[in-house]
Structure prediction request, 254 residues.
Amino acid sequence: MNQVLFKDLGEKLPYKKVWDYQEQLLKQNVTIKAWNREAIATGLAVKVQDGGTIETLTIETRQILNYLLFVEHSPVYTLGKSGDASNILISNEDREAKGIDFFKINRGGDITFHGPGQLVGYPILDLEAFRTDLGWYLRSLEEVIILTMKEYGLNGMRSSGETGVWLDADIPGKERKICAMGIRCSRWITMHGLAFNINTDLNYFSYIIPCGIVNKQVTSLQKELGRGVSMKEVKEKVKRNFQLVFDALLQDWA
Prediction:
């Protein structure tokens, strides 16, 4: 069972601040991984002491830490590295007037929205400690949300050829996406993650073609259940299901 450090960053955080934080954690782990590989390859280091005495020292490997971050962003559209800017239907002037930020970022996927009432989860995991398979990783993230939705009596499902979690994905005209996903992976260390609509204002999605997928809707737990949902309650369910699916132990991290 892998230990994963958990931190809830809070509400209405600017996207760039959290993006930079993710990059910092990823780079730290990539650096440690490179150090460990060199240590394993060489086994010994040579240290020259004062007076010219040479002493050999065994190199000890350093621990790579896994993280799971939760956050609610202030309103922002993000476009993946292979995304199509034509899927943004609002002008820059109108977007800025509505207080919505925009970033072109280094994850996979197309355009999506983050904002209040949406649970965003960022796992920074070393997949070499789990399973080195990006398809498995994405399906596992989807399973976390599918299990969480089941606790609310909703049948979350996958849509063939598309990432994320949907309702009625197999009924043309009724497909509704409730959780978007996009990741980056460097030396098997992940960042970015999932965006689960809880009490999200879905009007923000009307200014984009979400994930570049036409003629399909976006929904939220609030819309599907017909009532507001406790974000605290959802977070606890997602955490529990994350531990189950990834066979991991979450530890609160200050």
Observations:
- Residues 122 and 142 are 13 Å apart (CA to CA).
- The first strand starts at residue 2 and ends at 8.
- Residues 2-16+65-252 form a domain with the BirA Bifunctional Protein; domain 2 fold (CATH 3.30.930.10).
- The mean pLDDT is 91.
